[in-house]
Amino acid sequence: MIRFIVFHLRAVLTTIIAGVLFESIVRMPVPGYMRWFVLMTFVVFMSAMVLLVRRYVRIRLALWDMALLALAYMSTFLLMILTEWRTVIVLLEVLGALTVGMLVNILLSNTDTTPVYIKKAYRRMRGMAWVFVAAAMFITAYAVSFFFEQIPLAVLFLFVGATTSLCSYAIWRMYFQVPLQRFTIWLLIIAVMSMEVFWVIHLLPFGYMVLGFFAAWLWYLLLLLIRFHISAEGIRWKEQRRFLLSNAVVFIALLFVIRWI
């Protein structure tokens, strides 16, 4: 255990720093200064991240990783302030702190000499972190539509379309080393489809957490199908039919189960 901590010291430090900052936000004694305090914690967090990794990684070459760190931190904060249960808040703090710690560990460990199977694992972890960010953005958009009815849905549509396009491209670029221009059409497609999903799910009689979860689920399925489609092998429908059918069954079952919770 001690050897693991020493070897991954920077990741452990990142986890501790993030956890302390998250807890300090929750325990902020003066609500009127919350926005400034949150901004300060974000600046402290990103400054600490730059100091921890700049000796080992060129920041300019790791902008996507740094952006993911920032968005993961922001996503955790957004979910924390949208949750009322203390137990869930603590779980989010732990999850968020472990996530940013994992991302720093990946950033520092992923080198040219890293074995391919390790790189694949890192890629999946990064992908799940981007999915976490997208889910947090969906939940935030639904929460805003609940609490601020004066904000037009068109604004939220654009927000959802932009954030899902960003997360989609961030994931796709890990699998396909091609210029952004090659993804333009697909990014527009997934943005429009995400906005449609946002609208349809919005009609369900659930809270914003559940709505965001369902919307992120459908977006992720779209993301996978488009990724498979633009790959050299294409979509293997024999395998994907079972995958989509199982997801459809679970999705419909959850609609009825959650309705009665």
Please give a structural write-up.
Keywords: Membrane, Transmembrane, Transmembrane helix. The chain crosses the membrane at residues 7-27, 33-54, 61-82, 88-108, 129-148, 154-172, 184-202, 208-230, 242-260. This protein is mainly alpha-helical and 261 residues long. It has 2 domains: 1-109, no CATH class; 114-261, no CATH class. Helix content is 78%, strand content 0%. It has 10 helices and no strands. The chain has helices at residues 2-7, 9-26, 34-53, 63-81, 86-109, 116-147, 153-172, 184-202, 208-230, 237-259. Helix 2 (9-26) packs antiparallel against helix 5 (86-109), helix 5 (86-109) packs antiparallel against helix 6 (116-147) and helix 6 (116-147) packs across helix 9 (208-230). The chain is globular and about 45 Å long. The mean pLDDT is 83.
Structure described in brief:
The protein has ten helices and no strands.
Name some characteristics of this structure:
261 residues, mainly alpha, 2 domains, 10 helices, globular
